[in-house]
Write a structure and sequence with these properties.
Chain lengths: 117, 211
């Protein structure tokens, strides 16, 4: 199992550039729990509330896709649902900006249960 | 506080000579730890040191790897966890014994519409359907790898980076077979761009049981 770090890459295309992604620093990774510090309780509470809203939004989107698959929605209903999700997504982005949060902050670490989203 | 590296079988096996490792043993299990600080060092070097210890443990015993930063109040708490959860830990050890984790990352086909604002509700829902379909298509391509692995998990990543991530739990003895299949996949699907890293301790296959 033990290999030098450089030998951990078992397969890769010649050009690795498309795989480059910004790596969150470890300080950030270790802080992905709800911040209950009294000094920043407002932000911590916003993080918690927005996480629940985001979870519900994703569940509703999945349910809507299942209903489209099943053919139980007519064109007007699809349009209305799509507009609702679009507006909700925009509003979420606004609130994240207002509270200085990003999408990763909503993926709360639930410890033994893994990540929420 | 103590920083925990892993829960292992073979509690009597010598500890690797890496740092000041200690252990508590109960019911045929060992909890391997070092006395640490409540605020772990967050450098990449520290993370690699943690990794090195877990991998060294896996050389001669089955291990449930703990994520870097797993701290407990003291060795008494670790001992209680070994006692209270011994059945669960033993089952998980049976599942990962002799296995490694391989991480596969696939570059998803570009979705030009993804970042463009949808102009109607139908367009928005169409985008969701396309993205779901692309992810399902990628997963289907990886079917042969899933056939070699004993378990597979889809790992969630950031929605913005156009990558799909998968973890495979593979018998150590089938690593070469897995790598050969990766080559085959590349040859069969010229447009498929993927990376595979490992072998890693089976971090993705103990969550929910050993965290």
């Amino acid at each position: 199992l033990t290999r030098p770090r450089g030998d951990k890459l078992l397969a890769a295309p010649p050009d690795l550039d498309p795989f480059r992604v910004p790596v969150p620093d470890l300080d950030h990774a270790l802080s992905r729990r709800v911040n209950a510090d009294p000094e920043s309780v407002e932000r911590g509470l916003a993080q918690l509330v927005l996480t629940i809203v985001e979870l519900l939004r994703q569940l509703m989107e999945r349910q809507a896709l299942r209903r489209i698959d099943a053919g139980t929605l007519d064109d007007e209903q699809v349009e209305r649902l799509g507009n609702t999700f679009m507006a909700l997504e925009e509003r979420m982005q606004q609130l994240l900006r207002e509270f200085g949060l990003d999408e990763e902050d909503l993926n709360i670490d639930l410890g033994p249960l893994g990540n929420l989203l | 506080v103590i920083e925990v590296y892993a829960v292992t079988d073979r509690p009597e096996a010598p500890l690797p000579p890496l740092g000041r490792l200690e252990r508590v043993t109960e019911h045929g299990l060992a909890g391997i730890y070092t006395t640490g600080s409540a605020a772990p060092d967050t450098s990449a070097e520290a993370l690699w040191r943690h990794e090195q210890v877990v991998e060294a443990l896996m050389d001669d015993r089955a291990a449930l790897p703990m994520r870097y930063g797993t701290v407990l109040a003291d060795e008494g708490q670790l001992r209680r966890a070994l006692v209270d959860r011994r059945g669960e830990f033993s089952r998980l050890l049976d599942a990962v014994r002799g296995h490694i984790e391989l991480a596969v990352r696939v570059l998803l086909p570009p979705d030009e519409d993804r970042d463009a604002r949808a102009r109607s509700g139908r367009e928005y829902m169409g985008g969701l359907l396309r993205r779901r379909s692309a992810a399902a298509g990628t997963l289907a391509l990886l079917g042969p790898l899933e056939g070699i692995a004993d378990a597979m998990k889809v790992r969630e990543g950031s929605a913005a980076d156009h990558h799909a991530r998968y973890s495979f739990l593979v018998d150590r003895d089938r690593l070469d077979e897995f790598q050969a299949e990766l080559q085959e996949l590349g040859a069969r699907h010229r447009g498929l761009q993927l990376t595979c890293t490992g072998p890693w301790p089976p971090y993705s296959f103990v969550a929910g049981g050993a965290s």
